[in-house]
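hiii so um. not sure if this is the right channel but i have a protein structure encoded as C-alpha cells and i wanna go backwards to a sequence. like what aa goes where. can anyone help
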C-alpha cells in the first residue's frame, strides 16, 4: 500500500464543565464557585453590580468565600484583558467570574487565561452565545472586530439566572435569538463544506445536532418568550429560549462551525454606521446575506426574514444604518467580511467579494418586500428605531 502523508481527519466537541440555569440561581453562585476556587474576582459593570451585589455577596458569604468586585472598563480590548489579569495576580485570585453581558464575559475569559487561573461565566442577559465557549472576540477601542482569541479550555461553570434575564430589556433576548438562529445556518453550511469548527477539526454529529436543536427550540418558543420577557415573566418558553441562546447556540457554534453570518457581522463592525446595533442584530443581517449568497430556497429565505422581523430583529440595511450609504461603505464591510482568516471561507463554494456585495445589497429590497407582504411596518433608520438600552454592554 502506498504511504500516505495526509493528516488524519479529527472530529471534536468541547463544552463547559457545568451549566446551571434557573430562576433565582444567582443566590447559589457561591456554592457552585467554591469547588473551583477559593479567591474569586467578580468582573462586572456598575449597573449589573447594583442589581446583583447583595445576592452575590450573601451567596459567597454562605459558601465561605471572600468577595472582590472589579469594574469592567466597557470594551473587550486586549488592553482591558491585560489590566484585569494584572488585578487577578495582584490580589492572588484563583478564579475570575464574568458577571454581565457578552463583553464582560469575554474579558473575564481573556483575563483568566492571561493570569493562568480558571474562569466562570454568569450572564445576566441572554444576548449572545459567548458564555459557554473557549474563545473570546477581541475588539478595538472603537468597537471594531479585531480577532478571535482561543483558549485551552471552556469555562468551569456557566450559571444563568432566568429571572435576571427576564428582568432585562427585551432587546437583549431578541439580540441573543438573532445570534442563536445563525448557529444552524452556519453549522449547516460549514458541514456541507467539511469546514473546520472553532473547536478544531471537523464537527461531530453531536455538535451539529446541538446547532439544529437550537434552531428548532427557537422557532417553537422565540415569539412567546419575547412576549413574556416584555412583562418580566419566566415562562417555560423563556427557559427554553435562554437555553437555546446560551447553551445550545454556544456549543453549536463552537463545535458545529461558523460561516458567513458571523463574518458579515465582523464586516459590519468595521463601519461606524452599524454601531447602534447589538451583536445578534448585526448577525441577523449576516444570516439573511448568507441565505441569499448560498441560494437557499426563496420560501425559506422569506420565512426567515419574516420570522426575525416579527421578533424585532433588523432585516434591512435601513435598520442597520446602511440604507442610503455610498457603495464604498458596503465595500468596506465586504472587504472585512472576506478577509482570508474569516469564517466566510467555510461556505461550500469559493467566496467572491462581488457576490457578497450583491447579496448584502439585495437584503434591503428583500427585507422591505417581505415586511410589506406580511403587513409589518416600514423599516426605520436608526434615529427613529433606536431603543434606549440602560447598559451598552451588548457585544
Ligand atoms: Zn455570535
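sure thing!! here u go:
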Amino acid at each position: 500500500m502506498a504511504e500516505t502523508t495526509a493528516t488524519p481527519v479529527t472530529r471534536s466537541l468541547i463544552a463547559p464543565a457545568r451549566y446551571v440555569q434557573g430562576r433565582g440561581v444567582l443566590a447559589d453562585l457561591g456554592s457552585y464557585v467554591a469547588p473551583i476556587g477559593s479567591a474569586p474576582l467578580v468582573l462586572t459593570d456598575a449597573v449589573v453590580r447594583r442589581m446583583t451585589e447583595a445576592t452575590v455577596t450573601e451567596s459567597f458569604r454562605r459558601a465561605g468565600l471572600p468577595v472582590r468586585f472589579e469594574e469592567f472598563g466597557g470594551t473587550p480590548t486586549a488592553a482591558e484583558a491585560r489590566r484585569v489579569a494584572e488585578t487577578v495576580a495582584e490580589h492572588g485570585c484563583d478564579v475570575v467570574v464574568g458577571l454581565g453581558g457578552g463583553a464582560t464575559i469575554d474579558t473575564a475569559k481573556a483575563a483568566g487565561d492571561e493570569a493562568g487561573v480558571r474562569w466562570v461565566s454568569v450572564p445576566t442577559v441572554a444576548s449572545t452565545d459567548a458564555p459557554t465557549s473557549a474563545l473570546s472576540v477581541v475588539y478595538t477601542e472603537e468597537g471594531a472586530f479585531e480577532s478571535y482569541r482561543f483558549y485551552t479550555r471552556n469555562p468551569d461553570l456557566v450559571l444563568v439566572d432566568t429571572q435576571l434575564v427576564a428582568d432585562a430589556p427585551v432587546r437583549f433576548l431578541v439580540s441573543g435569538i438573532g445570534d442563536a438562529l445563525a448557529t444552524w445556518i452556519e453549522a449547516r453550511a460549514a458541514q456541507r463544506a467539511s469546514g473546520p469548527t472553532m473547536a478544531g477539526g471537523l464537527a461531530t454529529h453531536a455538535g451539529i445536532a446541538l446547532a439544529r436543536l437550537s434552531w428548532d427550540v427557537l422557532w417553537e418558543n422565540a415569539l412567546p418568550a419575547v412576549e413574556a420577557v416584555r412583562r418580566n415573566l419566566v415562562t417555560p418558553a423563556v427557559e427554553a429560549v435562554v437555553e437555546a441562546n446560551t447553551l445550545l447556540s454556544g456549543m453549536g457554534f463552537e463545535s458545529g462551525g461558523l460561516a458567513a453570518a458571523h463574518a458579515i457581522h465582523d464586516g459590519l463592525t468595521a463601519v461606524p454606521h452599524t454601531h447602534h446595533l447589538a451583536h445578534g442584530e448585526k448577525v441577523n443581517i449576516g444570516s439573511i446575506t448568507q441565505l441569499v449568497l448560498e441560494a437557499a430556497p426563496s420560501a425559506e429565505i422569506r420565512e426567515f426574514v419574516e420570522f426575525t422581523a416579527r421578533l424585532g430583529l433588523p432585516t434591512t440595511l435601513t435598520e442597520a444604518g446602511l440604507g442610503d450609504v455610498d457603495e464604498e461603505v458596503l465595500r468596506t464591510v465586504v472587504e472585512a467580511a472576506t478577509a482570508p482568516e474569516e469564517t466566510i471561507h467555510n461556505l461550500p463554494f469559493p467566496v467572491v467579494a462581488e457576490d457578497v456585495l450583491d447579496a448584502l445589497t439585495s437584503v434591503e429590497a428583500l427585507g422591505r418586500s417581505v415586511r410589506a407582504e406580511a403587513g409589518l411596518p416600514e423599516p426605520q433608520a436608526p434615529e427613529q428605531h433606536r431603543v434606549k438600552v440602560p447598559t451598552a454592554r451588548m457585544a
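oh and The beta strands are 19-22, 40-44, 69-71, 95-100, 118-123, 135-139, 145-150, 157-161.
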